[in-house]
């Protein structure tokens, strides 16, 4: 990940792409990983934690629903 606001956007975009590709391929574990990593971007950059919290809840709910091992 690169520093600054551009890096934050780029990181979120990469993790969104990873999560979307995993979802389309049916890889539930990788999908949850992508969502979780996207949720961590604000923590890494000191950004808005509400975005991270919302994404974390989504990833957590997805993992719980799918009962990943």
Number of helices: 3
How would you sum up the global shape?
flat
Q: Which structural class matches the secondary elements?
A: mainly alpha
DSSP helix fraction:
over 70%
Q: Mean pLDDT across all residues, rounded?
A: 75
Order of secondary-structure elements: HHH
Residue runs with pLDDT of under 50 for 5 or more positions: none
Q: End-to-end distance, in Å?
A: 28 Å
Proportion in β-strands = under 5%
Oligomer: single chain
Structural summary, described in words:
By secondary structure, this protein is mainly alpha-helical. Helices cover 84% and strands 0% of the residues. The chain has helices spanning 4-25, 28-45, 49-66. The longest helix has 22 residues, at 4-25. The chain is flat. The N and C termini lie far apart (28 Å). The model has no long low-confidence stretch (mean pLDDT 75).
Structure summarized in a few sentences:
This protein is mostly helical and about 70 residues long. Helices cover about 85% and strands about 0% of the residues.
């Amino acid at each position: 990940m690169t520093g600054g606001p551009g890096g934050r956007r780029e990181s979120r975009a990469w993790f969104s792409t990873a999560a979307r590709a995993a979802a389309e391929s049916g890889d539930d574990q990788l999908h949850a990983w992508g969502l979780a990593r996207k949720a961590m971007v604000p923590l890494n950059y000191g950004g808005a934690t509400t975005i991270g919290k919302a994404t974390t809840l989504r990833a957590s709910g997805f993992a719980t629903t799918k009962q990943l091992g």
